[in-house]
Amino acid sequence: MSNTSTGPSTFNGKVWEFGDDINTDLVIPNFAVFMTLEEQLPHCFSANRPGWVDEVQPGDVLVAGRNFGVGSARNIGAVFHALGISGVLAESFNGLGLRNCINAGLPSLPCPGVLDVFAEGDIAEVEWTTGAVRNLTTGATAVGNPIPTQLQSIVIAGGVENVLRSEGYLAAQ
Amino acid sequence: MGMNTIEKILANHSEQKDVKPGDVVMVDVDVTVQFDHARPDVLRIANPDKLVLCHDHVVPAPTVQAANMAKRMRDFVDRFGIKNYFPVGKHGISHVLVAAEGYALPGQILVNADSHTCSSGAMNCLARGMGPSEMLYILCKGQTWYLVGATTKVVLEGALPERVYARDVIHYIPGQYGDFAGRNLEWHGDGLANIDIDGRLTMATISAELSAEFSLFPYDDALASYLEGRAKWPFEPAHPDDDAHYEQVITIDVSSLEPQVVLPNKVAWNVKAAREVASEGIKVDQAFIGSCANGRLSDFAVAAEILDGRQIASGTRMIVTPGSQDILKQAIKLGYVETLMDAGAVVTSSTCGACFGGHMGLLADGEVCITASTRNFQGRMGSPSASVFMGSPATVAASAVTGVITDPRDL
After folding, report:
1. What is the average pLDDT value for chain B, to the nearest integer?
2. Per-residue pLDDT averaged across A63-84, rounded?
3. Position A2 in a domain
4. Nearest beta carbon to residue B182 from set A23, A92, A169
5. Model pLDDT for residues B83-96, shown as the tens digit of each residue
6. B187 falls within a domain
7. ipTM of this predicted structure
8. Which among B93, B103, B91, B44 is positioned nearest to B233, based on CA atoms?
9. Which residues in chain A are contacts of B209 at CB distance < 8 A?
């Protein structure tokens, strides 16, 4: 397991692989919608992958198929960020799912072909600001589509709420 | 190259006068809608007169936690002097309210921290679901960004056959074309004249299940007359340039469509004709009609027409939830509620309720539901071992009568 951060524009860690159409209700089930973030964490993927939250380690990377994050406005980015996920790669993202990841300060990028590049447990190294994706276990590489620089700044700031707090729109925590 | 309707609305709201796929566009937001949540740590907001607040997901409060959320919203309304507020008693589902009450307007940008915000695309209003964190940014600063996706032009031709509805059209598309993640839908064609505003609202709402970004309908005679006397503010409709660019064009002759059922757990590539599903004899435990997709008066009308003089099958329960208090009142006046109750259905107060497994109609382990609400995900409406099929209100009502998933043309 690698959880070493090599700088603000890179994330790396052990890969957890998920398939197509991973939806928001799997991340935050119906009964957990109005819980606090801390209370929501144990329920992430409880329907489709029971026990996963007990195995995931800080720094781990999510690799998923098409249409990742389809569904509701539930803040999946905040859940993954709080679980210590260092970044998300998917064949494609649902637009709202991607927005929630960016706004939670979680580096995320579409990367066509990513499911062919990684097997579960491989170590990924991702330069998310440029899209350079490497499998450190096998040496395989891929090219992701980095989010535009205006949006990268939200991720670097640690999420949109940090931006608002620093500008005096939200009360200090 | 010309801009399509979506790109033109974005350009009209930003300093960027030429918008194309791949751009990030910073825009000024016209209308901000917020339901259930109102955070006490917000110190100042940008545009209180263009903020619409309502209670919709859990109303009236089924838990102390929900009651406290509602209280925080009332505090927020008082603190910022919010005029556009729908308290309990005037409540409704946010997407239903903004159309019916004339807040979602042509050519404008509307935001709301709910994925079915794309519903307002039926009003020629640029709207998509936003996240809860970025809603704070919009609330405070009145601006947001959109990552511009490529647009598919969907051209509808013909008129819908009997017992085939707008809901079936929007189910047919992901069955044939899969998801539209990161892409927009723009609706065109003579066939639209045969789809009323309620039907367009259903289609725009369910576009979220196609994973579309925006789903935009044209400003036409039907929309103009719907907005007469209803629009809260002046507006300027948006139309595509003559040489507008589209990534692809899909043409559908709706007169050849059959009722369509979405199978459980996902929508893309997971749709069959109701006729085929009906042949499997799938027993139904719960039939549900409601939500921002199909909780409108026309949905009550269809259900009442099918259930009139009939009884819901033994062993099946049916729940019907209106999209707003106003819709419930009209459904009572027109006799729909009595017809539904005579058939054995439960008619509830307006709420998102059973659609998101919140309250009033959750599914038990292993149960089967046929629903005209918004989602069929695993665990969406209750137990993770329950199965949720989706169909039009007619398919749901017909299935409630027979107790098995049924093609409404066969009843």
Report:
1. 97
2. 97
3. no
4. A92
5. 999 999 999 999 99
6. yes
7. 0.94
8. B103
9. 70
Could you tell me where the beta strands, DSSP code E, fall in B158-240?
Answer: 184-188, 215-216
Looking at the fold, whether B321 and B248 belong to one and the same domain comes out as no
Same domain, B207 and B269: no
**Domain residue limits at B273:** 260-410
Instruction: Compute, in degrees rounded to 10, the torsion defined by CA atoms B246, B374, A99, B121.
Output: 40
Q: Does the beta-carbon distance from A96 to B129 stay under 8 Å?
A: yes
Interface contacts A/B by beta carbons within 8 Å: 142
- Compute the nearest-CA separation of B305 from chain A (Å): 32
8 Å CB contact between B98 and B192: no
B241 CB-side CA count, 13 A: 14
How many separate domains does chain A show? 1
pLDDT at site B40: 87
Which of A34, A48, A151 lies nearest to residue B24, judging by beta carbons?
A151
- Closest residue in B to A69 (Cα–Cα): B211
- Per-residue pLDDT, A86: 98
Q: Report B:258-297 residues touching A (Cβ under 8 A).
A: 266, 268
Boundary (domain end) residue, out of B254, B283, B300:
B254
C-alpha to C-alpha distance for B31 and B28, rounded to whole angstroms: 10
Interface of B with A in 133-172 (CB under 8 A): 133-134, 136-137, 140-141, 145, 147, 149
Provide, rounded to the nearest whole percent, the portion of chain B with pLDDT above 90. 98
Subunit contact A71:B65, Cβ cutoff 8 A: no
Q: Which domain holds residue A85?
A: 10-166
Residue range A96-121: mean pLDDT, rounded: 97
The per-residue pLDDT for B39 is 86
pLDDT digits (tens, 9 = 90+) for B303-333: 999 999 999 999 999 999 999 999 999 999 9
**Does the bond joining B87 to the residue before it have cis omega, within 30 degrees of 0?**
no
